[in-house]
Design brief:
The complex is a heterodimer of chains A (164) and B (329).
Chain A lengths: L10 E7 L2 E7 L5 H8 L18 E4 L2 E4 L12 E3 L12 H8 L9 H11 L8 H7 L10 H16 L1
Parallel strand pairs in A: 1-5
Antiparallel strand pairs in A: 1-2, 3-4, 3-5
Helix pairs in contact in A: 2-5
Chain B lengths: L4 E4 L3 H9 L4 E4 L5 H6 L7 E4 L8 E3 L5 E4 L4 H6 L1 H6 L1 H9 L3 H6 L2 H5 L51 H7 L3 E6 L2 E6 L22 E7 L8 E6 L10 E10 L2 E10 L6 E2 L1 H7 L6 H11 L11 H21 L1
Parallel strand pairs in B: 1-3, 2-3
Antiparallel strand pairs in B: 4-5, 5-8, 6-7, 6-8, 9-10, 10-11, 11-12
Helix pairs in contact in B: 5-8, 9-10, 10-11
Classes of the chains: A alpha+beta (164), B alpha+beta (329).
Chain lengths: 164, 329
């Protein structure tokens, strides 16, 4: 935590988010999560624990799911970052977003962007076919409301369609 | 978080030069431990050197048959590597038993070896901790110590080494390659992690500024039959209460050779030569496995909250060996 008298030194950071270049001037201490939420107003990505334990801040970096709270913005330069805001195409929801709606895969919704970002990444990961496999692959995303059953159903629905 | 400068290293030499004169510099790889501990102000580097762009992300087979794993290979990539799955299943299983999908995509091979303990007193700057602040005392000795170590402890520190991957690697006799101001060297993994003794603040045998570049896993044909079994408070995404990495070479019902290492119970990833001796040359039976488990835990020092780990670790090892034998026949 900085003090009021501490001089904040900023550096130029060139991020690429959801296909667009986003030049910023940031304190080197800024995480990718805070850059998204506080500097770019992309508040779909959520801050839960801020210590890599809850998964609410999950985004994709070069197509792989990572935790934006433990990623420094400076370390994400030159990479392709995708947030929940970047999933829908031309006003049409990503099939995973639609499936979460169809299966009521959330209650309060706070963990949902992280759940969906993880679930979309899981589609191209070596995850087994069963519900138990999906539970294991999704264990890094906590849901305090306990919407897990419907989250699994939503993911399996999309995976089933993808297989056809 | 304390202020720091940030540099992306273009080469290993450049990284070494940046770190050479600065004891407060830290190499940044996946960041899953370091950034977390910086937020807690347990780590206060003034310089971060991003090493993720270094060309150390390859997995290759050496002429000796050893598998060379670059230090920047991500845990998820290593877990799903075909050679690892075929030749060292316990390593793949250990990696997949650790952390979460997101963290495994971030965490690197070198970083995993150097991850810091999850001891809650180490992570809390308001509490005494000999590891974080030498000489202040160990809060865990008479505090909340359910998750703490029972092997390799001292009166100064009982913090558990948290890695799953490293447990498999000590069982496999891996060799850590490092480069530093005084050149390159090979460190047997058993000599990388140091038990706390009177100096829990010194965790590894790496010198200031030394950089892990690769881990080499020797060929070990019988490790194709190996297994990592992890016991924890919940089914997934939790640190081990006890775990066992085992490989066993059985012929005509007799154990010809064995590798045994334990996790969740040691101050370092815990290889057990005593358990291996108790297995070698004996009949591959549950009685033998129980004797090996007795031998593995013979030197355990329990504290108020973690005495249960002695029996838990024994049973974990017996079950791992039993399951491995069942799979083999």
């Amino acid at each position: 935590m900085g003090t009021a008298t501490e001089q904040v030194v900023t550096v130029e950071v060139a991020l690429r988010i959801n296909g667009a270049a986003m030049p910023l001037a940031l304190d080197p201490r800024t995480t990718l999560l805070d850059a998204l939420r506080e500097h770019l107003r992309l508040t779909g990505t959520k801050k839960g624990c801020d210590h890599g334990q809850c998964g609410a801040c999950t985004v994709h970096v070069d197509g792989r799911r990572v935790l934006s709270c433990l990623t420094l913005a400076l370390a994400a330069q030159g990479k392709e970052i995708t947030t929940i805001e970047g999933l829908a195409q031309g006003g049409e929801l990503h099939p995973m977003q639609q499936a979460f709606l169809d299966h009521d895969g959330f209650q309060c919704g706070y963990c949902t962007p992280g759940q969906i970002m993880s679930a979309v990444a899981l589609l191209v990961e070596p995850c087994g076919p069963n519900d138990a496999d999906v539970r294991e692959c999704m264990s890094g995303n906590l849901c305090r409301c306990g919407a897990y059953a419907n989250i699994i159903a939503a993911i399996q629905d999309v995976r089933g369609e993808a297989k056809q | 978080m304390h202020p720091f400068s940030f540099t992306t290293a273009e080469s290993a030499d450049a990284a070494l030069r940046l770190a050479a004169d600065d004891p407060t510099a830290r190499y940044l790889a996946g960041g899953t431990t370091l950034v977390d501990l910086m937020k807690l102000e347990v780590e206060q580097p003034t310089q971060l050197i991003d090493i993720t762009a270094l060309p150390l992300a390859e997995v290759t087979t050496l002429p000796t048959g050893a598998l060379r794993v670059g230090a920047m290979v991500r845990n998820s990539d290593l877990a799903h590597n075909e050679e690892v799955r075929r030749r060292y299943p316990m390593l793949s299983q250990a990696l997949l038993a650790g952390a979460s999908g997101q963290l495994r995509n971030m965490a690197t091979t070198g970083g995993n070896l150097l991850q810091r303990t999850r001891c809650p007193y180490f992570r809390d700057t308001a509490m005494p901790c000999n590891k974080r602040e030498p000489g202040t005392g160990c809060s865990a000795l008479h505090g909340e110590n359910r998750g703490h170590a029972i092997l390799g402890t001292s009166e100064a520190c009982i913090a558990t080494h948290p890695s799953d991957m490293a447990v498999a690697l000590v069982a496999l006799d891996a060799v850590v390659r490092a480069t530093g101001p005084r050149g390159e060297r090979a460190i047997p993994i058993a000599e990388l992690h140091r038990m706390p003794g009177d100096h829990p603040e010194i965790e590894t045998s790496l010198a200031q500024g030394e950089l892990i570049t690769a881990v080499e896993i020797p060929a070990l044909p019988f490790a194709a039959r190996s297994l990592y079994l992890k016991v924890r408070d919940r089914a997934s995404y939790a640190f081990a209460l006890a775990s066992a990495a085992v490989a066993i070479d059985v012929e005509s019902g007799t154990v010809r050779d064995a590798r045994v290492a334990l996790g969740g119970v040691g101050t370092v990833p815990w290889r057990s030569p005593a358990a291996e001796d108790a297995l070698r040359g004996r009949a591959a039976t549950v009685a033998t496995y129980r004797a090996a488990a007795e031998a593995a835990l013979a030197g355990a020092v329990p504290r108020q909250g973690n005495a249960f780990k002695i029996e838990l670790a024994r049973r974990t090892l017996v079950r791992a060996l039993t399951r491995l034998e069942a799979h083999a026949t």
